[in-house]
Structures are given as C-alpha cells and as structure tokens.
Amino acid sequence: MLTSLGLVLLLGLAAGGLCRRLHLPTMIGMLFTGMVLGPFVLDLLDPSILGISADLRKIALVIILLKAGLSLNLADLKKVGRPALLMSCLPALCEIGAFVLLAPTLLGVTRLEGAVMGAVLAAVSPAVVVPRMVKLMETGRGTDQGIPQMIVAGASCDDVLVIALFSTFVSMAQGGSADLAGLADIPVSILLGVLLGAVVGWLMAWSFENAYTAQHMVRNSTKLVIVLGTAFLLLAIEDSLKGTVAVSGLLAVMSMACVLKMRCPVSVGRRLSEKFGKLWIAAEVILFVLVGAAVDLQYTLTAGLPAVAMILLALVFRSMGVVLCLVGTKLDRKERLYCVLAYLPKATVQAAIGSVPMALGLPCGKLVLSVAVLGILITAPLGAIAMDASCGKLLKPGQPC
User: Fold this and answer.
1) Global pTM?
2) Pick from 345, 401, 396, 394: which is nearest to 25 by CA?
3) Fewer CB within 10 Å: N-end or C-end of the chain?
4) Is 141 helix (H, G, I), strand (E, B) or coil?
5) Is 169 helix (H, G, I), strand (E, B) or coil?
C-alpha cells in the first residue's frame, strides 16, 4: 500500500504541475495519472488501496468542505437564499428529465433506465467546484453578489437529492415500487444535517473559547485535529442512522465549520482555514487520482458518439435549469453565465455510483457505467477549464470572505 500511496502522491503532483505549466487545471493531470496507474491500464496500485478508495475520497471531500464552511460568509449567503435553494434541485431535475426524454431515442433504453442513467449523471461534483469557489471567496471575486457562497450551498445539497432519486429509480428498475418515503427523506436529511452540524459547531466553539479563558489555550494544530475527527464522526452518525433517520453527514460537516467561523474569533477561523488549505494539497491529489483509477476506458469506447451527444444535450437542459434558478436575481448576464459553467463538472458521485446498476444486474448497467465514465472525462475538465479561464472576466472583484 505504501508504494501505491507514494506513486499516487508523487506522480499525481508531477502530472498536476505539468498541467499547470500548460495552463490547464491540475485535476486533469491527476485524473489521467489515476487512469494510467489503475487496474484497467498498468495496474500498479495495490488492491488494498483500491479497496479503501471510497473512504479516502470521502476524507478528501470532508477536508475541502471544512475549508469551504470556514470560508463561507453566512450573511452573504442569506442574500441569495432562494436561488441557492433552487440550485440544489432544479438543475439536477432538468438533467434527469433530459435523460428520460432523449435517452430512449439516442441510446435505445427504456424511460425508467433513462431515469437511472440521469440520476447517475445529474450530481455536480463538489470536489471540482468547491475548491474553486473557496478560492473565489478568498480573493473576493463575485462575493459581493454572493455567487461562490450560493454555488457551494447548492452543490452540497444537490448530491443529497440526486443520490436519493437514484436509489428510488434503481428500486423501480429492479421491479419494486417507487420509494416515496425515500423522497420525503430528502428535506429531512438536509435539515437534520444542517441542524446537527450547527449544534456540534456551537459546542466546539464554546469549548475552544472556555479552554482559552481558562488559560489552557488549545493550539490551532490541535483544533484542526479535533475538527477533523469530529467531522469523521458526523459521517459515521449518518451511516449508523441509515434506515432509521435520514441525516446528511456532508452537510453537517459544512454546517459545523460555518458555525465555528461565526462563533470563533476571526483569527482562529482564518488560521484553521489556512491549515485545511494545506491539507487539501495532499487530499486533492489522492481524491482525483483515485477517481481516475475507477475509470474503465474500455467501457468508454463501447458507448460511442450517441452517449457523448446525450451527455452534451443533458448539459444544455441542466444549464437551462441554472438560468431558471437565477430569474429575479440582480446578477448580470456574465455572472449568470459563470453560474452555468460552475454547474457543469461531474466526477466523484459518478465514480461512486456509476457501477451500481451493473453490479445489481440491470440490463442497462454496462451502458450506465460507460456514460458515467464519459461524463467524468468530458465535464470535469470542461467545467474546470471554463471556471478557471472565465472567473476574472465574468465576476466582479469584491471583499474577501
């Protein structure tokens, strides 16, 4: 495992650095490093590291969501409350609708299989989007209009909705009935996740403050370990309550970080955010290399041009959904265009659930996986490049968060 981890970190960093010199997003180099090292090309990664790949990817997501929460300005987020709420569901629903309408014609599947495929593809990737929004919040780009805050909040809730819909559609495709209780759990999961994180964050801030006043100051490095360990426990709570009460662990993590920033002194929140930014350097490499390792290029070649056309048409529907979410806001055309671009990338959710229909024996399983792989390869680089290249032109400078 240590050899594999060394290859992941060193070659991933080297490929990311090469892409940076070519003025491309570093994640592109990391994704392709994972594909080359993975079991479908050179097969240089130890099976043990592939066995815990999902957990390692989740750890990386926790780190960037903590940094996002510590960078969010809740006052700015309140200004864009309605669009943020719509962004958490409407674009994904529009994209799923595109698959239901068009996939039977383009890919020869049933409408229900199209819904399964759409649910796999509809989730935006927090791993691609959130780091870029955090950077915007730190530099002040678009913050006066609340754009990065709105996108972070919407993208985080988007995954909860899509995964719940995916579970419902898969159950129906297996011959079961629609799990309406599962759909009702979506708002419950979001609300309980935010509430749980807020309570834990308040208690943590209180303990840090009292430790300081009692002249037993907790070092910022120790606070980082405490925050990270607590975040892992929040995810464990989600897993332990599954089937009983729906709670979004990832939303709880970000909510905890938001309350920490609000309750702790400004210097403490800033230093914690900086420390999580340093952790992200390694976590980013592990995340994207392991996402790349999950990509099977052979499946990609079997999908062909109809799958590419389906993905691009679905992105058009998704973009229309984003535009509808922003109706009535004060954002100008350039800012709305940036929001559309920020909602293009897919990666982590697709890598996590793309193979589930095939594992369950659904007739569309192989095609779903092929389209999921193509979705990652097309939209992750496309969205990352578009966001990186356009933020200076489309967003106005403002005050850093």
Assistant:
1) 0.82
2) 345
3) N
4) strand
5) helix
Rounded to whole angstroms, how far apart are CA atoms 198 and 255? 5
Buried b (16+ CB within 10 A) or exposed e, 273-296: bebbbebbeebbbbbbbbbbbbbb
Q: Which residues contact 309 (CB under 8 A, 6 or more apart)?
A: 106
Distance of CA 291 to the CA centre of its chain: 12
For the record, the structure tokens of 30 come out as 């990391």
SS3 of 397, please?
strand
Count other C-beta atoms under 10 Å from residue 112's C-beta.
Answer: 16
**Interatomic CA distance for residues 201 and 203, integer angstroms:** 5
Residue 250 corresponds to which tokens in the numbers above? 């990832």
Q: Find all residues with CB under 8 Å of 163, minimum gap 6, and list them.
A: 123, 349, 353
Residue that is written with structure tokens 């005050």 in the block:
399
For 173, the enclosing helix (H) or strand (E) is helix 147-173
Q: Are 8 and 45 in contact (CB under 8 A)?
A: yes
What's the rounded Cα separation, in Å, for the pair 132 and 282? Answer: 16
